[in-house]
Amino acid sequence: MMNLPLGLMLLDLFASCLVVAVLLRLSNRGGLARGPMLLGSIVFLLGMLPWGDQLARFSIWLHSLQSVAIHHLAPMLWMLALAGTERSEGERRSTRNRIPASAIVMLLVFALLSWVWMLPSLHTSLMHDAGLYMLMRWAMALSGLAMLTVFRKPKAVWQGENPAGYRFGRWINLSMSGPMLAWGVVMLAAPGLYSEAHMSTDHAMMMAALPEFLSLPIALDQRLGGVIFLLFGLGCLAMAYLPLLARVAEGVSPKRRRYSWPK
Percent of the chain beyond pLDDT 70? Predict the structure, then answer.
């Protein structure tokens, strides 16, 4: 259960700050909405703090919160910033009738990582090796960032009023919110899910590594993690519809196909 050397932790933090700096610079050039972009960057940095690993490795609910922050909430906020931008007519035509296969693969990888990250057996092994935990955290972060490139293609289709774009938008929504909602239900419905895996490493000893106010019994630790996934999964669903709701609030009729999801 050794922690990473300080030099590697500082390098890890520098890499996270570099990612955010590049995104903010690109957002300034692209005229993206500053509010969601800044908020998403803050959430990402907080979730990527290497010192946070020392807590999240020993706690299921902190592990769940870290996963939500870097893999779901930050990318969703960045997508909201992208949602307000317009694309050229040429870009719309280029993606009007097809969705790239790479986008489908990325959605599958994203959903798979969301599921694998919380597997009880993997969670236990990651607690023992801080290096593996850091690598898994970066895999989650990079797959979340890659979702931004996936989002831009169907966005052009949405603006081109193609029903295929709406259907693909639903798959984006499902790949982000689906695993969170599924894990939330599983963690609440199966209270002993992590008990067996944690018994071998003595949960009480691991909890002793946390500040007292964060140290919870194993059952409560898991239930709180399940509640976090359910709440953020539902929030992810709501956020996906915010651009639509904003247009309706501005007086655009929700019956117009361009601004509403097809039945």
Answer: 70
